[in-house]
Amino acid sequence: MMRMAMRMSLGDARQVVRDPVLLMSMLAPLLMALVIRLGVPFADGLAEERIGISLLGHEPFLISFLLSATPLMLGLLIGFLLLEERDEEMLAYLAITPLGKIGYLCYRLISPVLLSVIFSLIGFLVAGVEAPDALHLWPVLLMLALEAPLLALMMGVFAGNKVEGLALSKAAGVLFVAPVVAYFVTGPWQWAAGVLPTFWAVKAFLASGVGESVYWLYIGVGIPFHALLLVLLVKKLNAKGS
């Protein structure tokens, strides 16, 4: 089973390198981290000189946006791979291999979680920003990482092919609204974004090291919310016969 998973990983890597869209989905988080490290200080000088606004004062927002974008981009990548394998009727073949349908689904859901955690940690290093302490960092990274399989499952459930998947990926852009709302909107209206799973992860990150009780409240709500959505989407995917 491990050998089959390794072969699939190598096949995925070759497919990503050949497809510009998939390759950009993989590289986008690292490019965003580079922009934060190199582009923001330059833009900050211009903004402060011309309009009197300091971008560096909003570093928590920029990092929260990067952290939420990382699993979403990886989720899109895995979702497109899932749809391509469905179009090529690879799922029927994989179902009779030692990996099996359950093993295949586990591979497709766990791999983006691991990649998301790794890319998020690399993102801190590339962006040159200090990460929160381990106690506050790992729950946030776990919650964020769960968004990668969530988006991949959404594409598998609601898209019938890669064309529909492309349209759905554009609609998924609403998930990028969460960091904006979580950071800039105050008062009761901000909770309207609570229907977006990314909202709880971003709120937890912004509260890390600031308010202990509030931080753990966001973690306590966010992780079960992500888990519930995952269970519902897996059931729908199985019911769809994928």
From TrEMBL:
Keywords: Membrane, Transmembrane, Transmembrane helix. The chain crosses the membrane at residues 21-40, 60-83, 104-129, 135-159, 171-193, 213-234. The keyword Glycoprotein does not apply. The keyword Membrane applies. This is ABC transporter permease. It comes from Tumebacillus lipolyticus.
